């Protein structure tokens, strides 16, 4: 089975306030074949530190994620949820998302077929890139 690179992100929402505009943007990525969702879990941490995790259909604020095509679930376990909860401030919520970069599958396959092994990689923060591009624009 060919599979592209798999990534995860933990998106925090202060005040336990999920926003609905994320679901349609994520659905567009799935429908276009850019990504495939492997798992998606929501985590709440109350003001007293009590942690609750749930699937997309448990709250009105997250039910819009049900419209995203495909099957997802079962990859993330209790340890992953505990790690996510530890990263959260009290009175906040998070979406923990694992996805496959299906757009990169041919490249990943070529790397593996050539005997290549990825030994490092990291997502560069948005602010670092925008600051760099702003500096370039100012120099031009």
What does this structure look like?
The chain has 140 residues and is of the alpha+beta class. It has a single domain (6-104), classed as Dna Ligase, domain 1. Helices cover 31% and strands 23% of the residues. It has helices at 22-31, 78-87, 105-113, 126-139; strands at residues 6-14, 36-45, 51-54, 92-100. A four-stranded antiparallel β-sheet has the order 1-4-2-3, with helices on one face. The longest helix is centred in the last third of the chain and has 14 residues, at 126-139. The protein is globular. The protein starts with 5 loop residues before the first strand and ends with a helix.
Top keywords for this entry?
four-stranded antiparallel β-sheet, alpha+beta
- Range of helix content: 25-40%
Strand/helix succession: EHEEHEHH
Uncertain spans:
none
> What's the tally of helices?
4
Q: What's the mean pLDDT score?
A: 87
Walk me through the topology.
Blueprint: E1 6-14, H1 22-31, E2 36-45, E3 51-54, H2 78-87, E4 92-100, H3 105-113, H4 126-139
Antiparallel strand pairs: 1-4, 2-3, 2-4
Structure described in brief:
By secondary structure, the protein is of the alpha+beta class. The chain has helices at 22-31, 78-87, 105-113, 126-139; strands at 6-14, 36-45, 51-54, 92-100. The protein has one domain (6-104): 2-Layer Sandwich (Dna Ligase, domain 1).
């Amino acid at each position: 089975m060919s599979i592209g690179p798999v990534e995860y992100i933990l998106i925090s929402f202060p005040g336990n306030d999920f926003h609905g505009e994320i679901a349609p943007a994520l659905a567009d990525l799935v429908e276009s074949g850019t990504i495939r969702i492997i798992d998606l879990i929501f985590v709440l941490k109350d003001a007293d530190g009590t942690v609750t995790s749930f699937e997309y259909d448990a709250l009105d604020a997250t039910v819009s994620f049900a419209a995203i095509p495909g099957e997802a679930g079962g990859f993330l376990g209790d340890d992953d949820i505990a790690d996510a909860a530890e990263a959260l401030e009290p009175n906040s919520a998070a979406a923990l998302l694992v996805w496959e970069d299906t757009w990169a599958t041919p490249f990943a396959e070529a790397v593996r077929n050539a005997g290549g092994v990825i030994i490092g990689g990291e997502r560069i923060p948005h602010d670092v890139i925008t600051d760099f591009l702003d500096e370039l624009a100012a120099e031009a």
